[in-house]
Structures are given as C-alpha cells and as structure tokens.
Amino acid sequence: MFTGIVEEIGTVSSVQQGPHSLKLAIRCHKVLEDVKKGDSIAVNGVCLTVSDFSADQFTADVMPETVKSTTLHTLRTGSRLNLERAMAANGRFGGHFVSGHVDGTGEIIRIRRHDNAIYMEIAIPPELSVYLIPKGSVTVDGTSLTIFEVTENGFVISLIPVTQEDSIVGAKKAGEQVNVECDMLAKYMEKLLAKKEEKAVGGVTMETLAANGFLS
What we know:
Blueprint: E1 8-17, E2 22-27, E3 40-43, E4 46-53, E5 57-62, H1 64-69, E6 80-85, E7 104-114, E8 117-123, E9 137-140, E10 143-150, E11 154-159, H2 161-166, E12 177-182, H3 184-202, H4 206-211
C-alpha cells in the first residue's frame, strides 16, 4: 500500500530489454535507507519488487503485463522517476489509498499556467471515467492529486509549487503518456454495487415466484 506522496525522484541507470519484459536499475538514495530484497517500491506509480540493491541503486524486474499496460516501456537511461516506499504501519497518511496497480495510461492534452499553479488536462480510456468526481483523488505517475475538473475525455489536475518541485509530473509536456490509478475506494464501491444489483436481479426467478405463491 502506498499514499501517493513521492519520497524521491530517482534516475534510470540502465534498462535491460527482454523479449516482452524489462529489468530496471534505478539510482536513488532516500528509498534505500531501510530497503530489503523483496520490498515494494512504487516507480512512477507502478508497484515493483526490489530484486537486488546496492548503496546507491536498486534493480527490479518488470513482467510483460506491466510493460504492456504502463508507461515503463518508454523509460531510457537517464529518465527521471517518482519513487515511494510502501507505507509503514506507523507512518503518516498524507495522500490517499494507492495500490500501485495502474488502471491505464493517460495522455496529457493541454497544459496552462495560472499564477503559481499548473493546470494539466489528461485524456484517459472511457471505462475509467466512472471513477472520477470533482475534488476526488487520482494518482498520476505515482503522485496523489486532487481532480480539479472532470472533462468529457478525462480530467484536469492542478499542481501546486511543491508538487511541481518534488515530482516529475510538473515537468511533463503535452503529448506525453502518464500512468493513472483511479481511487481504490471508488473501485470497491462500484464492485459492491454491481454485486448487489446482480443479486437483486438474479434473485427473482420463475422458481422463487412460484415458491412464494405469485404463480399458479
């Protein structure tokens, strides 16, 4: 579990390409302070497992499904990354519930600056729009953000100066792809409501009507 509060901006030191997979080496410092093999670290919002580490970097394997469904396949040596360790049980919860399981990728289609804020419009797959509400939460490249506006094709976020400085999102350009994870609570709610509706519809059959005297 993560919070979407970026701890550090790391840098890709190497990318090993497999037929459909990747092996990343990521240079960083803060997230290595208490690292162990097998730990989870969110890399641009994607939960990856530490396979090895040294004093100044860690490596992680990216399986084919993750390569296909996230932006990690676009990484090159020197690419900058948002990094966050899994939340400690005694940690302060500053963002929102983030699983590190990306729902899809979005495309930045418009950027404008207003005073000290950067407004960024992101287009997403239509099936994700059900999870968006104004002032709700969304994760973009691992950064917990508030939805400023819901649009026909996606949503608008507003980046305050500290987010512009402490994550890679503020440096993104129009046309770039980002990892998007929708609010976990919204997804659970949709699942629960769908189950209730399914039971309500599926529970009324010819047999139950007959058993309760509604059919002669």
